[in-house]
Design brief:
This protein is of the alpha/beta class. The protein has helices at 45-59, 92-95, 99-118, 131-140, 154-162, 175-182, 224-234, 247-254, 270-279, 295-302, 315-319, 331-341, 346-356, 359-377; strands at residues 27-32, 63-69, 78-82, 123-127, 144-148, 168-172, 190-192, 212-215, 238-241, 262-266, 282-285, 307-310, 323-326. It has two domains: 21-196 and 358-377, 3-Layer(aba) Sandwich (Rossmann fold), CATH 3.40.50; 199-356, Rossmann fold. Helix 3 packs parallel to helix 4. The chain is globular.
């Protein structure tokens, strides 16, 4: 089995073989969440992943339709599951668990799944992080590959573990997350496909200017305040890039740390962010949760940045020897990691991305799994192709 689509445990096999989707043109529906639009500048890694996924599949000759909020734009046909993304009017950190937000999502995904059940798509790639599409796909006997970009939160975990259908398969973005979701053995339907980027969009620079950068949604789980504190302790200039997802957190814990050497540059589009990455000398990566992957880390690494990281979740699996790790989730330990990371060769960071985290490698992994989902929905069980 290729490393592009792997699972730590053994998978069930049955007579017969199946070719990769690379060998045929498929009609693929990519179903996105509706919290943010799928368009640049991306609110976060989920939106970037979905955007690059649909464009990459279309470039490979597949007939791709994006199911997302109506203000999305990925250059492929769009089915608007809602008119506009909900974060604008119903911020998640204020409305999560509320009846109005739950109803909005339920109605949106029910509408999408009813359409998908009747419109003859070969396979659905589910990027919603919502339980309803999984359950409705099972009821309708559809072929669906669900990518799980988060730890096993209760409602989603119940849907994954409690819904059994031969056409349903799942990917996670790291071996760490595979163990978190399924333990050491996994299931016949669980696979690891690392996220990937196009290194050409993140150009390498040989030298940095000695400064640090932090990028992502500004939210307590992302640990922005630790990056600012560590930079101040180390006396290293820091640029913070990203949208303010939690304004209260920013005002209370980040803004007081800003000065002429620790600055917030706002929310930047991909080329602008790549330019900022290339100019800097180290990325501060500060997840304070069970980090499933860390897309921003490989984007910065592609530009040549070593990483000073809080070692949570899959961070060490992704960054590897292209960075240094804080021993504790505190600013002093992160400042020490920053000093060590600054001595890591920039070529090591770029080489790791090109070797392990390219977009084409990610797409290969998904294309190997789409026909497996289709075969299961058609009543046939086959091994994942090598």
């Amino acid at each position: 089995m290729s490393a592009a689509a792997t699972r730590p445990g053994a998978h069930r096999t049955a007579p017969g073989t199946i070719d990769s989707a690379r060998d045929r043109r498929l009609r693929i529906a990519v179903l996105a969440h509706v919290r943010h639009p799928v368009r640049p500048p991306f609110a976060g890694g989920m939106e970037a992943h979905t955007w690059h996924l649909v464009r990459g599949l279309a470039e490979r000759g597949h007939d791709v339709t994006l199911f997302a909020s109506g203000d999305s734009d990925a250059g492929v046909p769009l089915f608007a599951t809602v008119d506009a993304h909900y974060e604008r009017d119903l911020p998640w950190h204020l409305h999560r668990g509320s009846e109005v937000l739950d109803t909005l999502q339920r109605v949106a995904f029910e509408r999408a799944m009813r359409h998908l059940a009747s419109d003859g798509f070969d396979v659905i790639h589910n990027n919603t992080l919502h339980p309803l599409p999984i359950r409705m796909a099972a009821e309708a006997g559809l072929a669906m590959l669900t990518s799980l970009h988060v730890p096993p939160f209760e409602v989603l975990h119940e849907a994954v573990r409690g819904t059994v259908s031969p056409g349903l398969h799942y990917t996670v973005t790291s071996r760490r997350q595979h163990a978190v979701w399924w333990g050491d053995t996994g299931t016949a339907a669980s696979h690891v496909v690392h996220n990937g980027i196009d290194p050409r969009e993140w150009p390498y620079r040989e030298y940095g200017d000695g400064s640090a950068i932090w990028a992502g949604r500004i939210d307590p789980n992302k640990g922005t305040h630790l990056a600012a504190q560590a930079a101040r302790l180390a006396g290293v200039p820091l640029t913070i890039v990203g949208p303010m997802e939690d304004r209260h957190y920013f005002d209370q814990h980040v803004a007081p740390l800003l000065d002429e050497r620790v600055r917030h540059a706002g929310h930047l589009r991909g080329p602008e962010l790549a330019e900022r990455f290339g100019r800097a000398s180290v990325l501060l990566f500060t997840p304070l949760w069970e980090e499933p992957f860390g897309l921003v880390a490989i984007e910065a690494m592609a530009c040549g940045l070593p990483v000073a990281a809080i070692d949570n979740g899959a961070v060490r699996e992704i960054v590897g020897d292209a960075g240094a790790y804080a021993g504790r989730d505190d600013a002093a330990s992160l400042a020490g990691a920053m000093d060590r990371a600054l001595r890591v060769p920039r070529t090591r960071a770029r080489d790791r991305v090109e070797r392990l985290f390219g977009r084409e490698r990610m797409l290969d992994g998904y294309e190997r799994l789409y026909p497996v989902c289709m075969a299961g929905a058609a009543g046939r069980l086959v091994p994942v192709p090598a």
